[in-house]
Amino acid sequence: MNNKTSFKKNLLNNNFKVGIIGLGYVGLPLALEFSLKGIKTIGFDLDESKVKKINNEKKSYIKHISTDDIVKATKNGTFEATTDFTRMKEVDAIIICVPTPLNENREPEMAFIVNTAHEIAKNLRKGQLISLESTTYPGTTDELILNILEGTGLKAGSDFYLCFSPEREDPNNPNFSTSSIPKVIGGYTKDCLEFGMIIYGKVIDKLVPVSSTRVAEATKLLENIYRSINIALVNELKVVFDKMKVDIWEVIDAASTKPFGYTPFYPGPGLGGHCIPIDPFYLTWKAREFEIPTKFIELAGEINTQMPYYVVEKVMCALNENKKCLNGSKILILGLGYKKDIDDLRESPSLKLIELLSERGAKVDYNDNYVTEIPELRKYKYNMKSVKITPASLRKYDVVLLSTDHSYYDHKIILENSSLIVDTRNAFKKFKNKKIYKA
Prior knowledge:
Layout: H1 3-12, E1 18-21, H2 27-36, E2 41-44, H3 48-57, H4 67-75, E3 79-82, E4 93-96, H5 111-123, E5 128-132, H6 140-150, E6 160-164, E7 183-187, H7 190-201, E8 207-210, H8 213-243, H9 248-255, H10 279-289, H11 295-321, E9 330-334, H12 349-359, E10 363-367, H13 391-394, E11 399-402, H14 411-417, E12 421-423, E13 436-438
Parallel strand pairs: 1-2, 1-4, 2-3, 4-5, 5-6, 7-8, 9-10, 9-11, 11-12, 12-13
Antiparallel strand pairs: 6-7
Helix pairs in contact: 5-6, 8-10, 8-11, 11-12
């Protein structure tokens, strides 16, 4: 029996071990899917606190991921975490779930992927499958990753197998989980695709094979560029319609009654999450190599990036109309996560709002029951803790700025005890009150 036949047999019989590199919002739920299906799984992460939470405390460090699942997976011996990357030799499938941020010039920061690929290369052996899930530009897998791994002397498609399968996580979405979201897979060769399909098929309900890793990489970019452009459209219309004294949210509600040819998108204080604010720029960067302009995509990014500035302008106008100035005003930002009911701060517009308001002399506090203290982040180093919301505390502020509309907010109590409200989410739509300003 040759190596390929033996590898396939082991995969089909669940006689294999999975390694997940990066135990964040993508890697941890995927690791739990494998381990809870009885497949031995090792999670790799540089963050010792995450490893300790899983191995010693048996606790989740992500709000929407159940501690019970971690207890089950670690108790039955199918899941453990480690910072020891030499243990990659033990696993048969290595799935890469590391960040792909942008640098200060909005260019891809590939260090996480490159460093991970080099760590894999140090421990690569025959009969392993490597799958990249991190969002990136077309060509990353069969150019960058391939060259690093084949630098070992092993050959993709025969000695080891290489895939790209983009993550499609939507944190805290009640309608979809890791297993129920269809998964796109592209392989470097037919065998790479086949083995990737077998492995992911153990935990994902529906698989969508495509002809190459580049198609899979481009699929993820299209999904997020589509959303970025449409959100930019309604954000731009929000500004235009506001000047015309037209409520953009009422317009969207009316347009949504059309049963065909229209999909509603909603404006906000800016774009958050690791995907939509970042992914489009991976394509615009790569397109320059081919001397192709991507004006449409870049324009959408610029519009969405400007939204926090627009919100600050609306705060200034609201204060001005009430004979106050921004400098010296006390402002409470409601919601720090990039969307409601999650603790994910990645690219959250609330963080930018804190920066802009503080720079203009405002005294800023925030409330978020899911983020009790702001950790040190790549872009921001705030020393701030969440304040409690009470009628008395609300009355201390000149403006209450609703940035993320968590479900626990009591809009009636907030309205009754606030001097001014700037609402970026149309959360107070059922109230008619002159102290509510939409932004």
